[in-house]
Amino acid sequence: xxxVHVPFCKSRCYYCDFFxxxxxDLVQAYVDALCAEAGERWDxxxxxxxxxxxxxxxxxxxxxxEQLRQIFAALPEACEGAEVTVEVNPxxxxxDFVSMLRHTPVNRISxxxxxxxDDVLRIVNRRHRAAxxxxxxxxxxEAEYTNLSLDLMYGLPGQxxxxxxxxxxxxxxxxxxxxxxxxxxxxxxxxxARMRDRGEVQEADEETALEMYRYLVECTRKCGMEHYEIxxxxxxxxxxxxxxxxxxxxPYVGLGPGAHSYxxxxxxxxxxxxxxxxxxxxxxxEEEHLTDGELYDEMVMKRLRTSVGICIDEVPxxxxxxxxxxxxxxxxxxxxxxxxxxxRLGSEGIFVSNDIISDLML
Length: 362
Ligand code: SF4
Hints:
Elements: E1 2-6, H1 27-40, H2 42-47, E2 52-57, H3 65-74, E3 83-88, H4 95-101, E4 108-114, H5 118-123, H6 130-142, E5 148-154, H7 161-172, E6 178-183, H8 191-197, H9 206-222, E7 226-229, E8 232-234, H10 241-247, E9 253-255, E10 260-262, E11 267-271, H11 275-279, E12 285-289, H12 292-303, E13 310-311, H13 317-333, E14 336-339, E15 342-345, H14 353-360
Helix pairs in contact: 1-3, 7-9
The site of iron/sulfur cluster has 10 residues, from loops.
């Protein structure tokens, strides 16, 4: 698995605390530095197996066709049948952009729609409007990009239950194979948090956010989508292979400033997030060696989010009793299920997943 971080956005969404820059003057220097990093880590990249490649950000659709091609040329060739995803912003999806994509190995598009309500989009400073998202889906389909994943957000300021129903119904009417939906996180230091502190916007209360999530879970189920991870839904077989690899703790190589890599055993590497230093060709990184306890916690946090759950045989022998003991009251209440050697959240457990997961962690 290979991940490429593209740390540029045209403008900043008010809720975002991801690492990205709005300095277009650095983009080409970044692309050159990224290709140099790929060259230096070539052995690692080859070992990583390019069965999935994910170009994320930031906003990768801010790159020119030439820059995207330059990046793909610096990576090992994708394996046959690989999933190659690029994240896009709806208003970047123009006929030129789509025809440029055809000259790359990209075969899956992940698009940040977030809402189909223009007022809500405006409040959080998304630069596209609902019509851009609908038009982008049509353009991509006309070009035979059918493996589409759309992102929604709930609990946004100004987003009433009625607006959320409109969002979910509208997105599902597009009959897309994959949907991700995330609850808004109010991160300190973001523009939105400052707006809240000044009383300009309000946080959605927990009950409303839960009601929104319940509505989404119910509607996706009626549409025949599998709820395969707490925030992810797909038509049968159309799960994200890249993200599923993260949840199974498979090894991956992350390129770009702030990107993470994992050896699949216990070593995690984080590239320095300083864009200027990175563009000057200096890829500083930190290595972290996870302890046995941290590995167990990672397994609980990631696998319990998925509908498959935790395979008991894969839990280190010394932790099995502890885990099952902590799970017991949730199994008794029906919020967890222990079946065929797997422990997973039950249909009501997904609504209180954070509590259950923290109970099972050390
Ligand atoms: S497009 Fe994505 S990465 Fe960029 S500011 Fe908005 S949420 Fe953050």
